[in-house]
């Protein structure tokens, strides 16, 4: 039973890293639903976003949250973590993450925020920077094997 649970969690982590995840806010206002603004989409995470998410988790000990009361006390940092995952771009994170976290706090229900948060926490534990290591392995391989070296011999 435990092995299948770990496989499901690992599959969810791979899905977030490779394809992304979309969460639907079920009790969004009618206007939001008409404009299709009732969805929060986390696109495949880039290496910098994974590092920023891990930094936020480590600074605030967010992986140690066990009760709903602890989660409510750290809700502003949880919203910031979700905002970083949604923005997933260095410049957007720098300038818009605080604003988006406040919007998330005021507009998204608590149960949706906590669902997204726990999903990201599981991904943070399971992936162990797979994206980053894969990226650096590809870069090292490309540096060692340049794809176009041109002509090796003088032409006729």
Descriptive labels:
two-stranded antiparallel sheet; 8 helices; mainly alpha; 68% helix; 156 residues; 2 strands
Q: Taking Cα atoms only, what radius of gyration do you get, to the nearest Å?
A: 20 Å
Strand order of the largest sheet: 1-2
Strand residue content: 5-15%
Query: How many strand units?
Result: 2
Class per helix and strand makeup: mainly alpha
Uncertain segments are none
Instruction: For the record, give the distance between the C-alpha atoms at the N and C termini, rounded to a whole number.
Output: 69 Å
- Described by the principal axes of the CA atoms, the overall outline is globular
**Largest sheet at a glance?**
2 strands, antiparallel
**How helix-rich are the residues, as a percent range?**
55-70%
Count of helix runs: 8
Order of helices and strands: HEHEHHHHHH
Mean of pLDDT: 76
Structure explained in plain terms:
- This protein has 156 residues and is mostly helical.
- Helix content is 68%, strand content 5%.
- It has a two-stranded antiparallel sheet.
- α1 packs across α7 and α5 (75-87) crosses α6.
- The radius of gyration is 20 Å and the shape is globular.
- The N and C termini lie far apart (69 Å).
- The mean pLDDT is 76.
Q: What is this structure, in a nutshell?
A:
The protein has 156 residues and is mainly alpha-helical. It contains 8 helices and 2 strands. It has a two-stranded antiparallel ribbon with strand order 1-2.
Task: Chart the SSEs and their pairings.
Blueprint: H1 2-18, E1 21-24, H2 30-34, E2 39-42, H3 47-60, H4 68-73, H5 75-87, H6 90-107, H7 110-127, H8 130-144
Antiparallel strand pairs: 1-2
Helix pairs in contact: 1-7, 3-5, 5-6, 5-7
